[in-house]
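Lay summary. Proteins are chains of building blocks that fold into shapes, and those shapes determine what they do. In this project we predict the shape from the chain. Here is one chain we studied, written as its sequence of building blocks.
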Amino acid sequence: MGGALVLLRPQFGLSPSQVGLLGASTFLGAMVGMLIFGDVSDRWGRRTIFVQSALLRRVFGAVRLRTISAAALHRTRAARRRGGNGCADLGRLSRRHRPAAPALLVLIGRQGLPESPRWLIAHGRLEEARLALARFGIEADGSGSV
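And here is the predicted shape, written in a compact code that computers can read:
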């Protein structure tokens, strides 16, 4: 967030108080996320939550982009053509969906991540934990410690 604040401050004319609030919002969001999803990820596994969060971000991002695109098209249409649903015009916006490609690549890349070895051990899945550690070049002994 620190790097973004350097760019956001002059762009939006933020006061020092606003910059502080924006910076603190990152920690507030992390805290709320931990309170809500910490227990869920302990039950379902961090890998599962990691992948699901990427999928939800992709889906909601696409919905938001489509909504914004439709509104932008509607505002730029000639007055005599306004009032339709504009669905035919949305096909022309496919190039605006290209920024979603990196998010899709991240989602695909996350599929290959192993579950956290600590979580696997906590849930009695010792062999899977051993395999997950081995993927990172770490050997585990039979005592449950690394």
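What the prediction tells us: Residues 46-76 form the longest helix (31 residues).
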